[in-house]
Amino acid sequence: MSVYKNVFGVRVAAVAALSLSAVSAFAGPLVNQLGYYPDAEKTVVYPGNDASGLEVRDMNGKTVLTLDAPDVYDWDYSGEEVQTFDISAVKAPGTYRLFRAGAYVGNPIAVGKGVYGDLVKAALKWFYYQRASMPLEPQYVGKWARAAGHMDDKVIVYGSDAATAKTFAEATGAKNVAKNPKAAVFNSARGWYDAGDYGKYIVNSGITVWTLLEIYENFPKYADSLSWNIPREFGKLPLLLEEVRYNLDWMLTMQDKDGGVYHKVSTLKFCGSVLPEDDTAPRYAIIKNVTASLDFAGVMAQASVVYRKFDKAYADKMLKAAESAYAWAKKNPKAFYKQPSDVNTGSYAPGNEDGKDEFRWAAAELYRAKAVAGAKGDKAAAGYLKDLKGNAFTANGAWWGDMNMIAAFRVALDSAVFDKDVVAAAKKTVMNEANNLRAVGDTSAYRLPAFPWSWNWGSNSAMANNGMVLVHAYLLTGDKSYLDGAQQCLDYLLGKNPMDITYVTGFGYRSPRNPHHRPSESDFVDDPVPGMLVGGPHLGKQDINLDGKEPWKCPNYAAADKPALAYIDDRCSYATNEVAINWNAPLAYLAAALEAIYNK
Fold it and tell me: Which of 55, 130, 217, 467 reaches 20 to 30 Å from 156, CA-CA?
């Protein structure tokens, strides 16, 4: 496994070895490689300091726009000097080329309707590729066909067998654990593989399903129009809701009889780079806890609203499950997940968890769900509203570790359901975050609305989530400047970045070829599964062989110590080149939002 096996690995390795002043020598104009809607804001970033202007010509060679050289700005995240040209005046549908000092530079730029349509469908279809417990047939996935893996029909309850009883007691403080316990098993089939591994995680499924259902809630006509090739099981459901139901069905299996919800289904250790059918170690449902139960409650309540008009019985089932999970969490508010010592699969447990954000979101979703179900006036609904009003919104953003902004989105956009005071607080929360992002984007050399803390594990999902905040601000106000900010977030993901690549497999002129994704690593197909958003650059360095003692890790692709350059397109890089369901979901939302809004 070598960093030099593909062009992107070569480029990143070279960037790390060169002085930062040499980075610009690699780059021409950086643009959204998929193109722009006619009315969208369109910016071109040009690394370097050049007095030349920029010409935009159509494919017949006619000059349609001439711009003088703009001011030069430094971008600390890459160490570059860059110039940003605004070509928004180019609105006529067509294909254009850029010229500087009379020379053609970069790749053609598309302007027109539907430029992100294929991306939306691929980003959503990827969830089908992630399905557990079923084969992927060639008529639906072509060369990426594979056998079924992880039927999960006999998942072991962690702590109920002799192999895990002791470590379960250590992690939970449980007493009177049987010395020779008889394993409890249950059927936990279906669901999506979480990321590059084969675990299924409730916490991450929660925010993922919420995001996908938010596409349907915010843009239902557009969502109804979407079509891609997967087998149909529930023909009356829109395709997006059919895919989401596959994961909801699995999530429902994770609820115990007392209402508590298990954290995840996984093996005790990550497997190697094998296909699903070859990962045959025992699978466990690991430890009920408050955050998993509340994330389950929130998303089941939301789903009960969305699915009610299609299947009332299913909606009622989800709402009942949501209320039971919330009640369990209220009885066990300190039951936070602690990763057992013999488990090394994803923990999804931030160290500073207090549960307030999950309680806030779950209460908001449950109160709305009760209202939609015609039970707004019952005792339980009153309790949810009381809990929500007593748990003030914070300034925190939207990611699996903090559901605060998700709760604010719900209340702000469903203002008719909630009391005026809590609606005002929610709108203020959303708009403050959006205004801060817009201010950063307006003054950034790359015009990217990103905070310093956006450059972390999964930085690309942070950019997409920032775009979601800005879209919600646009939906609340109609102010196009927020939509422009969201466009800049998508532009970054699709090529307007220092690496000059789209971070989505199979899209654009240059894209990742070697993601950290076990099916793509082990399927003997050169091309990775299309439509996957990789994690993106940051300086965590978790997968770098810094001391030379871990040869299976990556070479030092972050030697320049600039977060926007710390990326490598290599399967070794689980820190920057892995994929995940909670990263693809906001990509799909952001691209779908721009498609839906610009298509009216």
Answer: 130
Whole-angstrom distance, CA of residue 537 vs CA of residue 310: 41
**Phi, then psi, of 310 in degrees rounded to 5:** -100, -35
Alpha carbon distance 330, 355 (integer Å): 11
Closest CA to 402 of 349, 324, 339: 349
Query: From the candidates 55, 569, 570, 595, which is the catalytic residue?
Result: 569
If you compute the radius of gyration of the chain from its CA atoms, what whole number of angstroms results? 24
Contact 571, 515 (CB under 8 A): yes
Q: Please identify which of the residues 402, 491, 578, 595 carries the catalytic annotation.
A: 578
CA 228 vs CA 48, 123, 127, 209, 219: distances in Å: 42, 11, 12, 19, 18
The SS3 call for residue 385 is: helix
CB 533 within 8 Å of CB 590: no
- Residues 48, 63: contact at Cβ < 8 Å? no
Contact (CB, 8 A) for 346 and 277: no
Q: Are 78 and 498 in contact (CB under 8 A)?
A: yes
Residues 587 and 590: their CA atoms lie apart, in Å, by 5
538-566 per-position pLDDT tens digit: 999 999 999 999 998 999 999 989 999 99
Percent composition of the chain: helix, strand, coil (DSSP 3-state, to 5): 40, 15, 45
What mean pLDDT do residues 575-591 have?
98
User: How many Å apart are CA 558 and CA 77, to the nearest integer?
Assistant: 12
User: Is 516 designated active site?
Assistant: yes
Residue among 302, 209, 310, 291 nearest 250 (CA): 209
Q: What is the pLDDT of residue 494?
A: 98
SS (H, E, C) 228-295: CCCCCCCCCCCHHHHHHHHHHHHHHHCECCCCCEEEEEECCCCCCCCCHHHCCCCCEEEEECHHHHHH
- Beta-strand pair 103-111/155-157: unpaired
Quickly count: other Cβ atoms within 10 Å of residue 337's Cβ. 23
Catalytic, 578? Answer yes
Residue pLDDT, tens place only, 43-96: 999 999 999 999 999 999 999 999 999 999 999 999 999 999 999 999 999 999
Residue 457 and residue 463 in contact, taking contact as beta carbons nearer than 8 Å: no
Each residue of 87-133: pLDDT tens digit?
A: 999 999 999 999 999 999 999 999 999 999 999 999 999 999 999 99
Q: Considering 197, 295, 358, 387, which one is annotated as catalytic?
A: 197
What are the C-alpha distances in Å from 593 to residues 41, 45, 69, 491, 500?
Answer: 15, 24, 32, 14, 24
3-state secondary structure of 356: helix
pTM: predicted TM-score of the whole model, two decimal places: 0.95
Q: Which residues of 170-202 are buried (b: 16+ CB within 10 A; e: fewer)?
A: ebbeeeeeeeebebebeebbbbbbbbbbbbbbb
Q: Which of 263, 472, 516, 538 is catalytic?
A: 516
Return the bridge partners of 110, or none: 95
Distances (CA, A) of 577 to 140, 199, 208, 432, 511: 26, 18, 19, 32, 11
